[in-house]
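Reader question, answered in our methods column.
A reader sent in the components of a multi-part assembly and asked whether the whole thing could be modeled at once rather than chain by chain. We filled in our standard form and ran it. Here is what they sent:
COMPLEX SIZE: two components
ENTRIES:
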Amino acid sequence: MQTSMDYQQVLKYPLVTEAAIQSIIKENTLVFMVDVCANKKDIRNAFENMLKIKTKKINTLINYDGTKKAYIQLPPENQAATIAKRLKILA
Amino acid sequence: MARIKVHELREKTKTDLFAQLKELKTELALLRVAKVTGGAPNKLSKIKVVRTGIAQVLTVISQTQKAKLREAYKNKKYLPLDLRPKKTRAIRRRLTKHQASLKTEREKKKEKYFPLRKYAIKA
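And here is the structure of the entire assembly that came back:
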């Protein structure tokens, strides 16, 4: 079962809820909605290929309505806040 | 970016098309972020345009690929199954026109020497 997803289909959009913004500021993590068929390896691949950002740790969960959320923790040298500003997640 | 014109796409090479596809997909990703963060209406309406653009590029890629494959197999004996005519299962199993029209020598001679005659009857 080695089929990996096409990396442009993995990440859908970043979350901008209050809780997501808190995790950007406090825990240096970005929160993304992700395709349900993606696994953590795919997410890491997609992140590093599309956005050229190194990741430290990825946690995923599946919501009640069948969508997948990924908490992507960045290493301390990448500041999540500046990246969020670059991606226009934070204004 | 201007609206994609498909007749211009058809003149591009495969690598060009894939590069354009990648561009379009990254643009879509940006627009999706804008949608979530409350973007301007001109950005939100662009999503549909970009999605149809992606569909057009993919269509051109697959159409040219199919056309080239058909050319490559043109005079070969065996075609791949998805290049053969699909029609219906029953139609594919019927005798071909040529096979159905074959007649024995005997039958051909009969038809030649004893054709169907037309008569007229005097009233």
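What stands out: Residues 59 and 65 of chain A are 18 Å apart (CA to CA). DSSP finds three helices and four strands in chain A.
Send us your own complexes using the same form.
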